[in-house]
Amino acid sequence: MLLFLLVYPPTAAEALPPTTAPEVPEVATKVAKEAPKLEVAQVLTAYVTGYNTVAGQTDSTPCDAMGGNICGRMDTVACPRELPLHSWVLIEGKKYECMDRTALKHNGRFDISCDKDMKCPYTHTGWRKVTVLK
Predict the structure, then answer these.
(1) SS3 labels along 14-78
(2) Which of 2, 11, 24, 109 is most buried as measured by Cβ atoms within 10 A of its Cβ?
(3) What does the pLDDT look like over 20-48, one tens digit per residue?
(4) Cα distances (angstroms) measured from residue 132 to each of 5, 53, 129
């Protein structure tokens, strides 16, 4: 069974009130790691979504991913469980580091971290070509 999730931007009345960003450790505010030079391992079509690092969309510790702190970074993605943490993927021409896992019910999709950019998740949602790098 194939399930499609349509995500529409919220109207002004539905928009979430602004949230206070959690404190980001100094280490996380430094420039994100450069993706190493990698070769293509696999090309697939997958459903991609986006999320913000806020408690309402994650859990009570939105900056803490399985692979480390992701706040302040715009190059991280939650990946299917088949990919090891710290793997790199290419989505829409941009490199992302697999820093977390998608929930079991969403295994197979990629969930891009948009940090605090509330418009960003809507720009990523849909079926996309994903290149797994090795």
Answers:
(1) CCCCCCCCCCCCHHHHCCCCCCCCCCEEEEEEEEEEEECCCCCCCCCCCCEECCEECCCCCCEEE
(2) 109
(3) 444 444 444 343 456 567 899 999 999 99
(4) 24, 24, 10
At 72, is the secondary structure helix, strand, or coil? coil
Please choose, from the candidates 128, 42, 120, the residue with its C-alpha nearest in 3D space to the C-alpha of residue 87: 42
Which helix or strand (DSSP H or E) is residue 127 part of? strand 126-133
Count of beta carbons in the 10 Å neighbourhood of residue 40: 10
CB 51 within 8 Å of CB 113: yes
98 DSSP 8-state letter: E
Contact (CB, 8 A) for 75 and 32: yes
Q: Is 35 exposed, middle or buried (0-12, 13-18, 19+ CB in 10 A)?
A: middle
Sequence-distant (≥ 6) Cβ neighbours of residue 106 within 8 angstroms: 49
Section 46-64 average pLDDT? 90
